[in-house]
Amino acid sequence: DVQLQASGGGLVQAGGYLRLSCTASGFTFDNYALAWFRQAPGEEREGVACIVSKDGSTHYADVVKGRFTISTDINTVYLQMNSVEPEDAAVYYCAAGWNLSIPTMYQPFYDHWGQGTQVTVSS
Q1: How many angstroms separate the Cα of 88 from the Cα of each of 32, 46, 71, 112?
Q2: pLDDT for position 119
Q3: What is the pLDDT of residue 20?
Q4: For labelling alongside 19, which of 32, 34, 51, 60 has CA 20 to 30 A away?
C-alpha cells in the first residue's frame, strides 16, 4: 500500500517562509524521483521542483529558483519556501516516479501522488 501524505500548508504572509513535508509509506525513495507540483484555481497543474534520490540532483521551475529548495531524507520529501509571493498560492502535491535517472517534472512519469496541501498567501 504505497501512500504519500503531504502536510505543512497554511496561511503565510507575502515575503515570509513555509516548509512543506511529504511522508511516504509502503516504499523507500532510493530508486525514485520525488517532485512537488502545484495547482491554483482556474490553472493547470504545474511542476515546482524535483529531486533524484540516488544522487541528489535537482531541477526547479524558473519562477521559484533561488526561493524554494527541495530535499529528502529516508522517507520524507520537503519543500522549503522562502520569500513567498502571492503567485505561490496553490494546492501543493507531492509525487514519486520510479527509476528516473534525471530530475524531470514530466507528469506522466509520476505514478504515486499525495493528497495535496493548501498554501494561502496574504499581503
Answers
A1: 26, 11, 19, 23
A2: 98
A3: 98
A4: 32
Average pLDDT, consecutive stretches of 10 residues, N- to C-terminus, the chain (123 residues): 92 98 89 95 97 94 98 95 98 93 92 96 95
4 contacts 114 by C-beta, under 8 angstroms: yes
Kindly tell me the sign of the dihedral angle through the C-alpha atoms of 83, 54, 100, 6: negative
Residue type, 6: A
- Cell numbers at 117, concatenated: 496541501
- Per DSSP, the residues of 95-110 read EEEET-SS----GGG-
SS3 state at 64: helix
Q: Tell me, what's the pLDDT at 115?
A: 95
- What is the 8-class DSSP label of residue 54? T
Is residue 22 within 8 A of residue 38, CB to CB? The reply is no
Instruction: Please report how many Cα atoms fall inside a 13 Å half-sphere around the Cα of residue 92, on the Cβ side.
Output: 30
